[in-house]
Structures are given as structure tokens and as C-alpha cells.
Amino acid sequence: MPEVSRQTAQDSGVAAFRKQFPIFDQKIYLSSCSQGALSRPVEAAMQEFLESWHTHGNPWEIWVGRMEELRVEFARLINAEPAEVAVTFSVSTALNSLASALTYNDRPKIVTSDFDFPTVGHIWLAQQRRGAEVAFAGANGNRLPLRAFEELVDERTALVSTTQVCYKNGFKNNISALAELAHERGASLLIDAYQCMGTQPMDVKALDLDILVTGALKYLLGSPGVAFMYMRKDMIERFQPSDSGWFGQENVFAYDVHHLRYAASARRFETGSPPVPNVYTSLAALRLLAGVGLDVIQAHVQALAGRFIDGARGRRLALLTPEEPADRGPLVMVRSTDAPRLVEALAKQGILCSTRDGSLRVSLHYYNTEGDVDMVLAALDHYPDLLVHAPN
Ligand SMILES: Cc1ncc(COP(=O)(O)O)c(C=O)c1O
Fold this sequence. Notes:
A 7-stranded mixed β-sheet has the order 2-8-7-6-5-3-4, with helices on both faces. The protein has a 3-stranded antiparallel β-sheet with strand order 9-12-11, with helices on one face. It has helices spanning about 5-20, 40-55, 60-80, 90-100, 120-125, 145-150, 175-185, 275-290, 295-315, 340-350, 370-380, and strands at about 30, 85-90, 110-115, 135, 155-165, 190, 210-215, 225-230, 330-335, 350, 355, 360-365. The protein is of the alpha/beta class. It folds into 2 domains: about 5-30 and about 295-385, Aspartate Aminotransferase, domain 1; about 45-290, Aspartate Aminotransferase, domain 2, CATH 3.40.640. Bound molecules: pyridoxal-5'-phosphate. Pyridoxal-5'-phosphate binds next to helix 4.
């Protein structure tokens, strides 16, 4: 396709997608790093759940069937088999179930990083009571060099557990290099893709990942209450989580209180009754994204992030996020002298952003446009005192 027609097709794809998110009738939404915007299909899915409840009272067969559809849809999105996917309530519940199954004997060490979301650190630190030794790969400014992992991952390391994109500066780890490093030293690699899943293709096989966790509520555009954990098939039966429950059993509806029989699949990391309303919404959200294609979404998001970075650089704003496309995801951050005030001032103009660690977070998705980027940049021009400027 010639360049001009490709651009036009892409613009109309974005416009049609954006139309399904009513918030854009009133606001410029740049906060998917916190919560994805609500779409009409997701709203309709919630309504469908309510109708099923009204109509059938307790249609658990339908609801559990929906959960299995969600498992299949997520597996397809990451090029996994459904049996390799656990559907959980949050990333934290998935990690806790996994952590409860580790023995910390020959390989007691867990390597995580300064750039991981706090819940990841908390969960591994809590395992110290059970024998875990936790080490943090240290940041160098706004980057997490591979060297920091190389120094820590050794023959006593069971797991490297780290983020793909950092929630507080947008830095993106090279996860293929991490997989190579972990495997070379006999450790497994767990990637937390929460801050980018939904804005880029994810192929767990091609990337040679052992475990992947992410949740539905951010760039996957679902509601809170659903998360996913992928585990490579041949690893699953090694783990016997003590953090367990009836939905993790081989036959959920056997009602056998006397015996513990873990599911052979990744479902063994599930615990209690599924969060059905959120299963409905997440399924609709994943289908919405699959309808566009994660490669198409990535090209758009990368271009918008690049445009924001160019604009910020032109204004001499101090960026926290690396400028090279390979080192960043959908989140770009600039330093502020008073980020909560800046976020509030932007909100008054109908521009919704967020803040972490005293900086402004601007996050981009397929529903955003060049116009959104230009609007937020133009709005920032009104608040020079709330922004940190880079030296000349
Ligand atoms: C990278 C990352 N991991 C994990 C979480 C939290 O996961 P959960 O609340 O599902 O346990 C967040 C939430 O913002 C996050 O950004």
C-alpha cells in the first residue's frame, strides 16, 4: 500500500476505535497506565453479565464457560496454550500462589529490581520467612542495565522476576537478553508485562519466557479484578502451591473435601470463585484489541510516544523516559516541580494524566491521536513553573 493510503487507513482505524470510548467526547484521556478507558463493548459485556444473572439466577455453567473463553483469548494473544494460562484476581494473587510453591532449598535466591512495581518486591520479601533470599538489581539513573542482573544471577538463583516496562519512568527492559542470561545460569525468568501488555505484540515462545504476569485493567482495557499468569507447560507440574483452593483442583466440581488434586494445567494457581463480571468485561476488551492487532497498536503507540518526546525535547522538558524506541513502551514521563498540581491543572482543561514519584505520566494507547499529544504539549506551555527544564 502506498504510504499516504496506509496513513489514511491507519487514521480511520484509530478514529473508529476511539469512537467506541465515550470519554473522548469530553476528555483527552492519557492515563491508561492507571486504568484503561471504558469502551462500549466492555460496557455491553457488563450489561450482558447482569442480564444473565437476572435471567438465570445462578448460571455458573455459563459463567465458568466464559472464564474458559477468556483463558483461550488471552492464550491466543501471547501465543500460548490455554493450559499454560491461569486467570487470577490480580498480579499479586498470581505471584503469591507461585511464591507459595517455591521451596527455596538449592536455589533460594530471587532476583528482582529497583524498577519493579512494589507489590513484586513485597511478595518476594515476604518469602524470606520461608527461606528466600531477595536481591534487587540496581538502577543506573533511569535505566536498569543488564549488567545489574548479570552481577546478581548465579547458581543459587531460582528466579529472575522483573518488569518489562517500569511504572515510574517508562524504561523498557530487554527481556530476550534477560531470558538468555537467566537460562544460561539455570534460573527461570518471570516477566511482569502489566505496563505494556495490550500495546505491543507478545509471543512468550519466541521470547523464551518461563512465566509472564499481567492484569486486565490497564492497557488491556478491562476492569479491575482479572489478571493472568502464563507458565511454560513443562514447568507446571513442578509446582504445588500451598496458596490454593477449589478452582485450582483437577476437577473443580468434584466437591471432594478430603483430597488435594492439583489441576495438571496452570489452573493449579487459581483459588476461589472467579470474578465473573470482570471476566465478561475482560473478554470483550481482549477481543476489541485482537480485532485491531497488537502490531498495528504498537506502531501507533510508538509513533505517538515519539511525537510526545520530540515535543518535550523541543521545549527542553526534563524527560525521565529513554528516548530510543527500543527502550520505552507506551508511557512517557517528564519531571515536574509539583506533579499533583500539574495533573490537577491539566484535568481542569479536560486532559487526564497521572503522576508517580513526583513526575508527570503521559500514557498512550491506540485510541489516542496526534491531536491528543499536541494538546497536552500545548497545555504544558502554560505551566513552566510546574515543569523541570533540561540544561541547555
Ligand atoms: C507493573 C505493575 N505490576 C503490578 C501491578 C499491580 O498488580 P495487582 O494490583 O494486580 O497485584 C501494577 C499496578 O499498577 C503494575 O503497574
